[in-house]
Fold Fucolectin tachylectin-4 pentraxin-1 domain-containing protein.
Amino acid sequence: PELALDGLLTTFTHTNSETDPWWRVDLLKVYRVNRVTITNRPTYGSRINGAVIRIGNFLDIYSNTVCAVISTLEDGATDTFSCGGMEGRYVIVHIPGDQKILSLSEVAVYGY
């Protein structure tokens, strides 16, 4: 997950083409998450469309609560998604479906 947390917009995570690809960051303790900011990769940006941001305390993706769905995000664009103080140790971004590729340039989590 480190490439999505390195502060560089020129690097990005990238999964293989697979079913339900995901990315997760462990915050190491439970926080109230106010918002998540995601920067899309500069090319092939449409791959992120339909991704789901989840917050929670479970390693199982679907046991965590949905914060937001990324309907569209242009190549290289940054958007902020409000999570309204949802509590969780894990922030997960995943794309439901078959033969999907998840690629993220940067993810920032804000809360307390």
About this structure: The first strand starts at residue 22 and ends at 39. The chain has no helices and five strands. The beta strands are 22-39, 51-56, 65-70, 78-94, 106-111.
